[in-house]
Design a protein that fits this description.
By secondary structure, this protein is α/β, with parallel strands linked by helices. It has eleven helices and seven strands. Strands 1, 2, 3, 4, 5, 6 and 7 form a seven-stranded mixed beta sheet that branches. Strand 1, helix 2 and strand 2 form a beta-alpha-beta unit. The structure holds guanosine-5',3'-tetraphosphate. The site of guanosine-5',3'-tetraphosphate has 16 residues, from helix 6.
Protein backbone atom coordinates (compact mmCIF):
# COMPACT_ATOMS: atom_id res chain seq x y z
CA UNK A 1 0.00 0.00 0.00
CA UNK A 2 1.09 3.55 -0.56
CA UNK A 3 1.95 5.61 2.50
CA UNK A 4 2.45 9.29 1.92
CA UNK A 5 3.35 11.79 4.53
CA UNK A 6 4.82 15.20 3.90
CA UNK A 7 7.33 16.47 6.41
CA UNK A 8 6.46 20.21 6.40
CA UNK A 9 6.75 20.73 10.16
CA UNK A 10 9.64 18.31 10.50
CA UNK A 11 12.23 20.77 9.21
CA UNK A 12 11.43 23.02 12.17
CA UNK A 13 11.51 20.09 14.61
CA UNK A 14 14.87 18.99 13.26
CA UNK A 15 16.35 22.47 13.64
CA UNK A 16 15.14 22.69 17.24
CA UNK A 17 16.65 19.31 17.92
CA UNK A 18 20.00 20.27 16.36
CA UNK A 19 20.13 23.25 18.72
CA UNK A 20 19.29 21.23 21.81
CA UNK A 21 21.64 18.36 20.98
CA UNK A 22 24.57 20.77 21.34
CA UNK A 23 24.02 21.20 25.08
CA UNK A 24 23.48 17.57 26.10
CA UNK A 25 25.92 14.79 26.93
CA UNK A 26 23.60 11.91 26.20
CA UNK A 27 20.71 11.17 23.87
CA UNK A 28 17.98 8.83 25.02
CA UNK A 29 16.56 7.35 21.86
CA UNK A 30 13.07 6.04 22.56
CA UNK A 31 11.78 3.24 20.35
CA UNK A 32 8.68 1.08 20.51
CA UNK A 33 9.50 -2.35 21.94
CA UNK A 34 7.03 -3.89 19.48
CA UNK A 35 9.20 -2.75 16.55
CA UNK A 36 12.54 -1.45 17.84
CA UNK A 37 14.17 -1.56 14.43
CA UNK A 38 11.42 0.15 12.46
CA UNK A 39 10.90 2.90 15.03
CA UNK A 40 14.53 4.03 15.08
CA UNK A 41 15.70 6.90 13.00
CA UNK A 42 19.07 6.46 11.31
CA UNK A 43 19.63 10.24 11.14
CA UNK A 44 20.11 10.32 14.88
CA UNK A 45 23.51 8.67 14.58
CA UNK A 46 24.80 11.69 12.66
CA UNK A 47 22.91 14.22 14.78
CA UNK A 48 24.25 12.77 18.00
CA UNK A 49 27.83 12.17 16.91
CA UNK A 50 30.20 12.39 19.88
CA UNK A 51 27.35 12.06 22.39
CA UNK A 52 26.63 9.13 24.64
CA UNK A 53 23.57 7.16 23.68
CA UNK A 54 20.95 4.98 25.34
CA UNK A 55 18.07 3.24 23.59
CA UNK A 56 14.84 2.80 25.51
CA UNK A 57 12.68 -0.11 24.43
CA UNK A 58 9.48 1.55 25.57
CA UNK A 59 5.95 0.15 25.81
CA UNK A 60 7.51 -3.16 26.78
CA UNK A 61 4.24 -3.90 28.57
CA UNK A 62 2.65 -4.16 25.11
CA UNK A 63 5.32 -6.35 23.51
CA UNK A 64 5.80 -10.11 23.81
CA UNK A 65 8.30 -10.56 26.67
CA UNK A 66 10.37 -13.13 24.72
CA UNK A 67 10.55 -10.69 21.82
CA UNK A 68 11.82 -7.92 24.08
CA UNK A 69 14.41 -10.27 25.56
CA UNK A 70 15.63 -11.09 22.08
CA UNK A 71 15.86 -7.41 21.17
CA UNK A 72 17.71 -6.57 24.38
CA UNK A 73 20.23 -9.35 23.60
CA UNK A 74 20.51 -8.11 20.02
CA UNK A 75 21.37 -4.58 21.18
CA UNK A 76 24.03 -6.03 23.49
CA UNK A 77 25.46 -7.97 20.53
CA UNK A 78 25.67 -4.70 18.58
CA UNK A 79 27.46 -2.93 21.45
CA UNK A 80 24.48 -0.59 21.95
CA UNK A 81 23.22 0.12 25.46
CA UNK A 82 19.49 -0.32 25.91
CA UNK A 83 16.93 -0.24 28.68
CA UNK A 84 13.50 -1.88 28.70
CA UNK A 85 10.63 0.06 30.27
CA UNK A 86 7.04 1.23 30.52
CA UNK A 87 7.29 5.01 30.45
CA UNK A 88 4.00 5.40 32.31
CA UNK A 89 5.42 3.70 35.37
CA UNK A 90 7.67 5.25 38.00
CA UNK A 91 8.76 1.78 38.96
CA UNK A 92 11.35 1.78 36.16
CA UNK A 93 12.92 5.16 36.97
CA UNK A 94 15.62 3.85 39.32
CA UNK A 95 16.77 1.43 36.64
CA UNK A 96 16.66 4.18 34.05
CA UNK A 97 18.80 6.43 36.22
CA UNK A 98 21.37 3.67 36.55
CA UNK A 99 21.29 2.93 32.81
CA UNK A 100 21.86 6.62 31.99
CA UNK A 101 24.79 6.82 34.41
CA UNK A 102 26.34 3.68 32.93
CA UNK A 103 25.87 4.92 29.38
CA UNK A 104 27.57 8.26 30.09
CA UNK A 105 30.97 6.93 29.17
CA UNK A 106 32.20 9.77 26.94
CA UNK A 107 30.89 12.40 29.32
CA UNK A 108 32.71 10.84 32.27
CA UNK A 109 35.96 10.60 30.32
CA UNK A 110 35.72 14.26 29.26
CA UNK A 111 34.94 15.42 32.80
CA UNK A 112 37.81 13.41 34.18
CA UNK A 113 40.24 14.83 31.63
CA UNK A 114 39.18 18.33 32.68
CA UNK A 115 39.23 17.57 36.37
CA UNK A 116 35.47 18.15 36.74
CA UNK A 117 33.81 16.28 39.57
CA UNK A 118 30.16 15.25 40.02
CA UNK A 119 28.68 17.22 37.16
CA UNK A 120 25.22 15.83 36.35
CA UNK A 121 24.67 14.15 33.01
CA UNK A 122 22.57 16.31 30.71
CA UNK A 123 20.28 14.22 28.59
CA UNK A 124 17.51 14.64 26.06
CA UNK A 125 14.85 12.24 24.89
CA UNK A 126 14.31 11.80 21.16
CA UNK A 127 12.22 9.60 18.94
CA UNK A 128 9.62 9.41 16.21
CA UNK A 129 6.00 10.37 17.05
CA UNK A 130 3.99 8.27 19.49
CA UNK A 131 6.80 6.21 21.03
CA UNK A 132 6.25 7.77 24.47
CA UNK A 133 8.61 10.75 24.67
CA UNK A 134 6.17 13.06 26.48
CA UNK A 135 5.03 10.26 28.75
CA UNK A 136 8.59 9.60 29.87
CA UNK A 137 9.26 13.28 30.52
CA UNK A 138 6.00 13.60 32.48
CA UNK A 139 6.73 10.52 34.55
CA UNK A 140 10.14 11.87 35.49
CA UNK A 141 8.81 15.38 36.12
CA UNK A 142 5.94 14.02 38.18
CA UNK A 143 8.30 12.30 40.54
CA UNK A 144 10.77 15.03 41.16
CA UNK A 145 8.54 18.02 40.39
CA UNK A 146 11.77 19.99 40.28
CA UNK A 147 12.26 22.01 37.16
CA UNK A 148 15.23 24.29 36.90
CA UNK A 149 15.12 27.70 35.28
CA UNK A 150 16.13 28.65 31.78
CA UNK A 151 19.70 28.06 30.79
CA UNK A 152 21.70 29.75 28.09
CA UNK A 153 22.18 27.85 24.87
CA UNK A 154 18.86 26.05 24.96
CA UNK A 155 15.71 27.06 23.09
CA UNK A 156 13.94 29.76 25.10
CA UNK A 157 11.46 28.37 27.56
CA UNK A 158 13.21 25.02 27.68
CA UNK A 159 13.77 23.65 31.14
CA UNK A 160 15.62 20.81 32.77
CA UNK A 161 14.04 18.13 34.91
CA UNK A 162 16.13 16.29 37.47
CA UNK A 163 16.25 12.54 37.75
CA UNK A 164 18.03 11.67 40.97
CA UNK A 165 21.10 13.77 41.75
CA UNK A 166 23.08 12.87 38.70
CA UNK A 167 20.83 13.39 35.67
CA UNK A 168 19.18 16.44 34.16
CA UNK A 169 16.75 15.85 31.32
CA UNK A 170 15.57 18.49 28.84
CA UNK A 171 11.83 18.92 29.20
CA UNK A 172 11.42 19.14 25.41
CA UNK A 173 11.90 15.96 23.40
CA UNK A 174 13.58 15.79 20.03
CA UNK A 175 11.05 14.76 17.42
CA UNK A 176 12.40 12.64 14.63
CA UNK A 177 11.06 11.79 11.26
CA UNK A 178 10.11 8.12 10.79
CA UNK A 179 12.09 6.38 8.06
CA UNK A 180 10.10 4.22 5.76
CA UNK A 181 11.73 3.79 2.40
CA UNK A 182 11.15 0.10 3.04
CA UNK A 183 7.37 -0.50 2.75
CA UNK A 184 7.48 -3.13 5.51
CA UNK A 185 8.87 -0.55 7.90
CA UNK A 186 6.27 1.96 6.75
CA UNK A 187 3.52 -0.49 7.62
CA UNK A 188 4.86 -1.18 11.10
CA UNK A 189 5.14 2.50 11.87
CA UNK A 190 1.63 3.08 10.58
CA UNK A 191 0.25 0.19 12.67
CA UNK A 192 1.86 1.78 15.73
CA UNK A 193 0.27 5.16 15.04
CA UNK A 194 3.43 7.13 14.34
CA UNK A 195 2.06 8.33 11.02
CA UNK A 196 -0.91 10.69 11.13
CA UNK A 197 -4.28 9.07 10.46
CA UNK A 198 -4.90 11.47 7.59
CA UNK A 199 -1.86 10.21 5.70
CA UNK A 200 -2.89 6.58 5.53
CA UNK A 201 -6.09 4.95 4.39
CA UNK A 202 -7.23 3.32 7.64
CA UNK A 203 -9.25 0.54 5.99
CA UNK A 204 -6.38 -0.44 3.75
CA UNK A 205 -4.06 -0.32 6.74
CA UNK A 206 -6.39 -2.53 8.78
CA UNK A 207 -6.40 -5.01 5.88
CA UNK A 208 -2.60 -5.10 5.98
CA UNK A 209 -2.77 -5.59 9.74
CA UNK A 210 -5.12 -8.57 9.33
CA UNK A 211 -2.67 -10.10 6.85
CA UNK A 212 0.19 -9.56 9.31
CA UNK A 213 -1.73 -11.26 12.13
CA UNK A 214 -2.56 -14.22 9.91
CA UNK A 215 0.90 -14.57 8.42
CA UNK A 216 2.57 -14.59 11.83
CA UNK A 217 -0.09 -16.59 13.68
CA UNK A 218 -0.93 -13.74 16.07
CA UNK A 219 -4.71 -13.91 15.74
CA UNK A 220 -5.65 -15.11 19.21
CA UNK A 221 -6.23 -11.75 20.92
CA UNK A 222 -8.07 -10.47 17.87
CA UNK A 223 -10.44 -13.43 17.70
CA UNK A 224 -11.06 -13.23 21.41
CA UNK A 225 -11.93 -9.54 21.25
CA UNK A 226 -14.10 -9.51 18.14
CA UNK A 227 -15.42 -13.07 17.99
CA UNK A 228 -14.26 -13.36 14.39
CA UNK A 229 -11.02 -14.30 12.61
CA UNK A 230 -9.10 -11.64 10.69
CA UNK A 231 -9.27 -13.88 7.62
CA UNK A 232 -11.13 -13.41 4.35
CA UNK A 233 -11.72 -10.11 2.59
CA UNK A 234 -10.80 -7.18 4.86
CA UNK A 235 -14.03 -5.31 3.98
CA UNK A 236 -16.01 -8.28 5.25
CA UNK A 237 -14.00 -8.60 8.44
CA UNK A 238 -14.44 -4.87 9.06
CA UNK A 239 -18.18 -5.09 8.33
CA UNK A 240 -18.57 -7.86 10.87
CA UNK A 241 -16.70 -5.85 13.50
CA UNK A 242 -18.69 -2.69 12.69
CA UNK A 243 -22.00 -4.53 13.08
CA UNK A 244 -20.92 -6.10 16.36
CA UNK A 245 -19.77 -2.74 17.71
CA UNK A 246 -22.82 -0.88 16.34
CA UNK A 247 -20.56 1.32 14.25
CA UNK A 248 -23.16 2.22 11.67
CA UNK A 249 -23.57 4.78 8.92
CA UNK A 250 -26.85 6.58 8.29
CA UNK A 251 -29.14 3.93 6.86
CA UNK A 252 -27.68 1.22 9.09
CA UNK A 253 -24.77 0.19 6.87
CA UNK A 254 -21.62 -0.89 8.70
CA UNK A 255 -19.09 1.92 9.11
CA UNK A 256 -15.98 0.04 8.03
CA UNK A 257 -13.76 3.11 8.31
CA UNK A 258 -14.55 3.56 11.99
CA UNK A 259 -14.18 -0.19 12.52
CA UNK A 260 -10.70 0.02 10.96
CA UNK A 261 -9.70 2.86 13.29
CA UNK A 262 -11.11 0.96 16.27
CA UNK A 263 -9.08 -2.16 15.46
CA UNK A 264 -5.86 -0.18 15.03
CA UNK A 265 -6.51 1.72 18.28
CA UNK A 266 -7.13 -1.57 20.05
CA UNK A 267 -3.82 -2.92 18.79
CA UNK A 268 -1.93 0.25 19.79
CA UNK A 269 -3.33 0.12 23.31
CA UNK A 270 -2.56 -3.60 23.72
CA UNK A 271 -6.19 -4.77 23.70
CA UNK A 272 -5.37 -7.48 21.14
CA UNK A 273 -2.70 -8.96 23.38
CA UNK A 274 1.03 -8.41 23.53
CA UNK A 275 2.25 -8.39 19.95
CA UNK A 276 5.71 -7.89 18.45
CA UNK A 277 5.74 -6.59 14.89
CA UNK A 278 9.35 -7.49 14.27
CA UNK A 279 12.11 -9.50 15.88
CA UNK A 280 15.84 -9.20 15.32
CA UNK A 281 16.36 -10.86 11.98
CA UNK A 282 12.81 -11.09 10.77
CA UNK A 283 9.37 -12.01 12.06
P1 LIG B 1 5.24 10.93 21.98
O1 LIG B 1 5.48 12.06 22.94
O2 LIG B 1 6.47 10.16 21.68
O3 LIG B 1 4.53 11.33 20.72
O4 LIG B 1 4.27 9.86 22.69
P2 LIG B 1 3.33 10.05 23.98
O5 LIG B 1 4.16 10.21 25.20
O6 LIG B 1 2.32 11.09 23.68
O7 LIG B 1 2.65 8.61 24.06
C1 LIG B 1 1.79 8.13 23.04
C2 LIG B 1 0.80 7.15 23.65
O8 LIG B 1 1.50 6.01 24.15
C3 LIG B 1 0.01 7.70 24.83
O9 LIG B 1 -1.27 7.07 24.79
C4 LIG B 1 0.77 7.17 26.04
O10 LIG B 1 -0.03 7.06 27.20
C5 LIG B 1 1.19 5.81 25.52
N1 LIG B 1 2.40 5.29 26.17
C6 LIG B 1 3.60 5.90 26.30
N2 LIG B 1 4.49 5.09 26.89
C7 LIG B 1 3.83 3.92 27.15
C8 LIG B 1 4.23 2.66 27.71
O11 LIG B 1 5.39 2.43 28.10
N3 LIG B 1 3.27 1.70 27.78
C9 LIG B 1 2.00 1.90 27.33
N4 LIG B 1 1.13 0.89 27.44
N5 LIG B 1 1.61 3.05 26.78
C10 LIG B 1 2.52 4.06 26.68
P3 LIG B 1 -2.54 7.79 24.29
O12 LIG B 1 -3.64 6.80 24.33
O13 LIG B 1 -2.24 8.50 23.00
O14 LIG B 1 -2.74 8.91 25.34
P4 LIG B 1 -3.25 8.72 26.85
O15 LIG B 1 -4.72 8.60 26.70
O16 LIG B 1 -2.61 7.49 27.43
O17 LIG B 1 -2.80 9.99 27.48
Amino acid sequence: MNIQWYPGHMTKAKRAMEENVKVVDLIIEIVDARAPGATRNPDLAALGRGKDRLIILNKADLAEPEGTERWAAWFVSQGIRSFVMDARSRRDLKGLLRAIEEASVKKKARDQARGILNRPVRAMAAGIPNVGKSTLINTIAGRTAARTGNRPGVTKGTQWIRLGKSVELLDTPGILWPKFEDPEIGLMIAFLGSIGEMAVDQEELAGEFFRFLERTGRTEGFTERYGTEPSGRPEEVLSRIALKRSLLLAGGLPDTRRAASAVLEDFRAGRLGRICLELPGKL
